[in-house]
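Figure S4 source data
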Amino acid sequence: MQNREQQAGFVLLLRQANMSKVVMPDLIRHPVLSWIPAFAGMTGLAFIIAGAITGTRAAGTGQSVRKGRRPDPFRPGSGRRRFLSPFLLRSNACLGILCLVLGALFLSTPSVWAQPPEFVMTEGVAAIVNNAVAPARDKAIDDALRKAVEQAVGTLVTSDTLTEQYKVITDKILAQTAGYVQRYKVLSEKAEGDLYRVKIQAEVARGNLQNDLRALGLLHVQAEKPKVMVILEEKVMGVFGTTAFEDVGQAESTLIQRLLASGFNVVDPQTVKANLSRDQALRILEGDNNAAAAAGLQYGAQIVITGRAFSKNAGGRIMNTQLQSLQATLQARAILTDSAKIISSRSEQGRQAHIDEVQGGALAIQQAMQRMADPMINDILAQWRSEIYGRSREVTLVITSLVSYRHLSAVKTFLEKEMQGVRSINQRSFIAGNAELMIDYGGKSSNIADELANRKFTGFRLEPTNVTPSRVDVKAVLEK
């Protein structure tokens, strides 16, 4: 770990010494100059070819001189080749090496330039000492820039990594904001008593940040995987040679194994079965997405996977033997608990020949789930990453205990006109003092919760009660 920190520190020193790495990506974003990375790559390739030709030519001519074969200008086919002095030979050799180095440098830079910047809006605060406003303003801007880099780091590493390696990140990353912030714009600033507040919009160089986090050994995964709850109904026909059914739990156990192997945190299925009421389970299995979302939130899950698995005898014995053909049908869907939105829905079938209907049916269900698990997991990961780390996404805001529609109007006005990052608001409902808003927001949902909790509305305040990546629940409390 110490070697990684030393390497990362060396990279940071190089970046501070060569600020072109910070400035050049700004040019690349210009529509007219967007071809520069491709041109740099082609130029680098030309440098490499030229270097190889020049170096070979220099080496070949040097060999001719050493062997005493001076080119004869009158010999047919010799052309007008000039004799190269040792000084020119050394110059050509050096030029070849220089071309090779420049070519490698040009070819390596487009991968860095291609990284888009991270647009972050933050607020910095500093104390005003002895009525000195100017120094307080500078410190507030520095605080806002540090928070911008910290927020960008939060989209690249897991929360566990942030907690465990906070000192390393603070010393090696957050203390060097100048190496990551390409430019910033002050959105608002004001003095409040002994404090000076500044809101900025900063552009953070993700490529530089990723490289340094990787050098520190902290860039393991780019997104935390969600917590998943699995509720599957399974019926295997043929208990004791009858038409009765048995739940052997094969589909559930197979899916949970795949989820755990993929790094997901899974709610204990025995805890769910012991505490989930029969009526609630039936509603979930019958397709009530709201009931599934409510059950998932109850156990802290962000995603609920629910469905049915069924196996039966496909038709008698196989070629007068004791083997039977068992067929399984599996249907499942994945639901976001924040919005009750279906993010994956799949069906699969499995077949198995077995002497025992129950065991054969369980194996057929296992085969169907093995075919379904990986595609469904890919659906979940793709949707989860777009929901959590998209530049603009929909966040559901639920406000309860409102005593007046005017209070809701005040909240909407604040979000639309004062809160940075809000692109649009759509009011879904207002029923019996409870309102639901859909916010198109370019940041984290926790930022919405923080802003609403700290905002002083006339006659009431908002207390966050539940915050997830795509949903914020707040309660209106009257001020006494």
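Figure S5 source data
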Amino acid sequence: MPLTGADLVRWRTEKAITQRAAAEVLGVAPSTVAKGELLPMKPLGEALAVALLGRLAS
């Protein structure tokens, strides 16, 4: 099942970090994180999904 905006929000809130901090950790632009969180049921774009998957696995 693909990662969604809801997964991103859950990860970010569990880490208690801002969207800007999440973007730095994931290596993407802050706007990418913000857009990913806008539609919680929509699958994330490939770059964001791969970056988040790497963080979820560690």
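The chain is about 70% helix and 0% strand. The helical segments are 5-15, 19-26, 30-38, 46-57.
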